[in-house]
Amino acid sequence: MNQIGLYTKKVIEHFRNPHNMGKIKNPDSVGKAGNIICGDVMRLYINVGKDKKGKEIIKDVSFETYGCVAAIAASSVITDLVKGKTLEESLNFNREEIVKKLGGLPPIKIHCSVLAVDALYEAIYDYFEKKKREIPEKLKKVHQRIEKEKKEIEKRYKEWIKLEEKMHEKSE
Whose CB has fewer CB within 10 Å in the chain, the N or C terminal residue? Predict the structure, then answer.
């Protein structure tokens, strides 16, 4: 593993020059996830299109992350991994793929890769819900866990969340 301090060169590269950072204008859906331990919050925006076979794919994807080096790097990588993939393929991504693509993460930062996958799953959940489509069981379970964690975050960090929401509104 080629490292600089705690992080690999790949992590530092994605942190310094994140891919697909920012907000998509008029996204088809948005996924929001947060971590109750560290307070990191991520929004993942997707636009869905169709490939040549007529399958729905993630045509465009971007993120906004309030978090550490690992959270920003994981956000950048997940956008690279899912752009052009079908929704079904995207639901098979997991934290191990992000960690592998980054050349590893310190054990204490693995939760950042989980956050990126959660935000992706929430964006897909949001898309299915908006389109009144049947939501796969796996996705329902992940969504329920994330909703439970969001409630815990809201309870613990009420003031911080209000500030974060105001900052987000100003950026719109």
Answer: C
- How many C-beta atoms lie closer than 10 Å to residue 105's C-beta? 23
C-beta separation of 34 from 75 below 8 A: no
| Stated length of the chain | 172
Q: Is 4 exposed, middle or buried (0-12, 13-18, 19+ CB in 10 A)?
A: exposed
Average per-residue pLDDT for the chain: 87
Q: Which amino acid is at 88?
A: E
Q: What are phi and psi of 45, to 5 degrees?
A: -105, 135
Residue 3 pLDDT > 50 = no
- Rounded Cα distance, 33 and 149, in Å: 9
**What is the DSSP secondary structure assignment for residue 86, as one 8-state letter?**
B
Q: What is the percentage of the chain residues whose pLDDT exceeds 90? A: 60
**Residues classed as catalytic:** 38, 112
Instruction: Name residue, tokens 């592998």.
Output: 100
Beta-carbon neighbour count of residue 157 at 10 Å? 16
Nearest to 15 by CA among 27, 24, 4: 4
Q: Which domains does the chain have, with CATH numbers?
A: 3-171 (3.90.1010.10)
Cα–Cα distance measured from residue 155 to residue 150, given in angstroms and rounded to the nearest whole number: 9
